[in-house]
Amino acid sequence: MKNKELTKNIYYIGVDDKEIDLFEGQYVVPNGISYNSYVIMDEKTAVMDTVDAHKGKEWLSNLKTVLNGKRPDYLVVLHMEPDHAGSIDLFLKEYPTAQIVSNPKSFQMMQAFFEGIQLEGKMHSVKEGETLSLGEHTLTFVSAPMVHWPEVMVAYETKEKILFSADGFGKFGALDVVEDWDCEARRYYINIVGKYGAPVQTLLKKASTLDIQKIFPLHGPMLTENLSHYINKYDIWSSYRPETEGVFIAYTSIYGNTAKAALKLKEILEAKGVQVAISDLARDDMAEAVEDAFRYSHMVLASPTYDGDVFPYMATFMHHLKSKNYQNRTVGFIENGSWVPLAGKIMKEKIGTLKNIHIIENHVTIQSAMKTQDVLALEGLADELLK
Ligand code: FEO
C-alpha cells in the first residue's frame, strides 16, 4: 500500500517489513509487520511518526513522493520505541528546519537513542489536551502512558475524526497480507501491551468521549468501519475478562507421556462439547500460547517433574503469564513424575500467587506413563473444569 491517500489530504507513507526475523527480539511474525506512518497535507504539513531504522530509506522515499517538493513543518512523535522512532535522525538530516512535536519524556528518549542529536530550537512540546492547528486539520494530543511505553501519546484529528492510536489497535502482519484481525491483533496485544490493562482502560475511557470515525494505528490495517468490534475486543483484553468460554491446555513433555495425558484430556473435554485449544510449549509459538491462556476462561497446565522443578518450557510459560498479569481464570494441573512428582505442587504455588485465580485443587498425577486409572482422574478433572 504505497503512498495511498486514505482520506482527503491524509496519506499513508508506512512500510512493510518481511525481512525481520523476530519482532521486538522475540516474536515470530510469519506474515511480517507494518510500521505505519502518515502525512497530513494542509497549510502546515505534519508527518505522523517515522519507521524502524532499517526501513528508513524506503519510508523517506515514500514521504518525498507525497510531499512532492514541499518541506514538512512538523514531525509528530507519538511513541519513541525504535520500530517507530528509528528514523527520526534520518528525517532531521533531510528536513533540519522541521519542528518535532512531542513531549519532554520523548525528547529525553531521543537524546538517549541518538547520540549528538540536535534538538535545540526544534522541540515543540505538547501536553494533555493541547492542540496543533494545521489549517483545516487540527490535532488534539491525549497522553496514553504505558500504552505501551511511558511517553506514549495518541492524537485525535478533529476534521476527519481520526484517532492516531500509536500501538493501540495494532496487529502483527504486513499490510499486503489478508488475514483475520482478531487473531494477530490479540497475539500482539496480549504479548506486547497485555501487562498494562489499567492504562489501556484509562485510554479507552478518554477515547469514549471523542467521536471517532477512523482509527489509524502504528501497525496493521487502518480501521475505518465497525469500530465497536475492535473497541469491544480491547475492552475485554484490557480488563482481563475471558473472551471465549473453553479450555486452553498448555503442555510440555519429555518422552510424549505427558503429551498423551494432555491430548486425552482434550478428547474428553471435546466429547463433552467444550471448545479446547492446546499447545506444546516446546514446539508451538510461546506467544500464541500466552494469547490462548488469556483468550479462554479455563486453563490446564501439564508438565513433567524435572530436576526437582517443572520442565523448563513450563517455567518460561508461567513466567510470561505472571509478567503479563494473567488473572481471573480457573486453572487445573496435570503432573508427571517417575520417582518424586513435584510439578503439580510447584505449578499450583506459582499460579496461586496470581490475582483472582480459582485453582482446581485435585491435580492429576501420572506416574511415568498414562494408565487406565489416570484416564478416570482426567475425567474427574474435566468434570471439575465444567462445574
Ligand atoms: Fe510498535 Fe511499542 O512499538
Helix percentage: 25-40%
State the end-to-end distance: 50 Å
- At the fourth level of CATH, the homologous superfamily of the largest domain is Ribonuclease Z/Hydroxyacylglutathione hydrolase-like
Rg result: 24 Å
Q: Count the E strands.
A: 21
The global form is: elongated
Spatial order of strands in the largest sheet = 1-2-5-6-7-8-9
CATH second-level architecture of the largest domain = 4-Layer Sandwich
Overall pLDDT confidence: 97
Q: Topology of this protein?
A:
Elements: E1 5-7, E2 10-12, E3 15-17, E4 33-35, E5 38-41, E6 45-48, H1 56-67, E7 74-76, H2 82-85, H3 88-94, E8 99-102, H4 104-113, E9 123-125, E10 131-133, E11 138-143, E12 153-157, E13 162-164, H5 181-193, H6 197-207, E14 214-216, H7 227-238, E15 244-251, H8 257-271, E16 276-280, H9 286-295, E17 296-306, E18 309-310, H10 312-323, E19 330-336, H11 343-352, E20 358-359, E21 364-366, H12 372-386
Parallel strand pairs: 6-7, 7-8, 8-9, 13-14, 15-16, 15-17, 17-19, 19-20, 19-21
Antiparallel strand pairs: 1-2, 2-5, 3-4, 5-6, 10-11, 11-12, 12-13, 17-18
